[in-house]
């Protein structure tokens, strides 16, 4: 199997489907798109790992990001206090010429994510930047949870809020005139001390991984069909929603178009659920590479 070779491959527009595993994509894509499909091996099993290993050096790209980890805030991934939990000293703005934070501008509070139309709207509203850039990436959040038909996204909502709060706190700290950090700094330090201990305790626990996924599922479906079947049904539905949006946008793209993913998604394989940093199993590493006709 070929490595993904994201930047080395020949394309003008790359549409990234977040957490899209190859096998599910291969079963449904041809209902929406024509093209040549390959299975490729990603550079990471999560967005922070994929981004930090893919975007090295300087790249002239207009990057429309529905994913909060790829942002224009200038905060390294290892300094994001909520959500990343990694050691990667990487920021998108140091390597990508123009990042559009669609995870802010196109956010839907009810859904707890950025729906596909948010990416298309941002792309259409910044055609000047697209024309200036060498290449363009649209990073859709789907099929990544939350599942749009449920409309109850929680996990991404917490990450998004956490990044916003951190951005606001750092801006406030820069504006400080010597009055000190007050109790907020103490609470933040306490949180930084406790959180790694909690994460260490949960590390490797299949039950803990499932608990995160259960936030996105209907309890009745879980009881009736089991966690894997309930999640896979909603996951495929999310993928179809994204592919329908991609199919609508492709005719507007003048150039070579590729549809791929940053990483996949696990549904209990080898005891893994969802996706985690440096967990290099096939469901997380095998991604589609579709050269659209």
From TrEMBL:
Q: Where is this region: Disordered?
A: 160-190
The protein's matches in InterPro entries, at most eight in alphabetical order, are given as: Alkaline_phosphatase_core_sf
Return the protein name.
Sulfatase
Provide the species name: Natrinema salifodinae
């Amino acid at each position: 199997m070929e490595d993904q070779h994201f930047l080395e491959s020949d394309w003008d527009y790359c549409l990234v489907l977040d957490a899209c595993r190859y096998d599910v994509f291969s079963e449904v894509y041809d209902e929406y798109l024509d093209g040549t499909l390959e299975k490729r091996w990603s550079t990471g099993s999560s967005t922070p790992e994929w981004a930090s290993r893919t975007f090295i050096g300087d790249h002239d790209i207009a990057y429309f990001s529905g994913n909060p980890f790829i942002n224009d805030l200038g905060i390294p991934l290892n300094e994001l206090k909520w959500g990343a939990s990694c050691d990667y000293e990487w920021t998108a703005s140091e390597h990508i010429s123009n990042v559009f934070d669609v995870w802010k501008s196109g956010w839907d509070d009810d859904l707890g994510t950025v729906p596909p139309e948010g990416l298309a709207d941002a792309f259409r509203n910044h055609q000047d930047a697209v024309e200036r850039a060498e290449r363009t990436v649209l990073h859709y959040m789907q099929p990544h949870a939350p599942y749009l038909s449920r409309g109850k996204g929680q996990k991404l909502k917490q990450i998004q809020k956490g990044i916003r709060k951190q951005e606001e706190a750092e801006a406030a700290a820069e504006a400080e005139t010597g009055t000190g950090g007050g109790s907020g700094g103490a609470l933040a330090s306490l949180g930084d001390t406790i959180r790694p201990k909690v994460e260490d305790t949960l590390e490797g626990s299949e039950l803990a991984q499932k608990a995160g996924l259960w936030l996105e599922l209907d309890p009745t479906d879980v009881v009736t069909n089991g966690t894997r079947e309930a999640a896979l049904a909603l996951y495929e539905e999310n993928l179809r929603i994204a592919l329908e949006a991609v199919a609508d946008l492709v005719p507007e793209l003048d150039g070579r178009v590729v549809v791929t993913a940053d990483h996949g998604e696990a549904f209990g394989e080898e005891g893994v659920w969802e996706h985690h940093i440096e967990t290099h199993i096939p469901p997380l590493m095998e991604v589609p590479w579709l050269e659209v006709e």
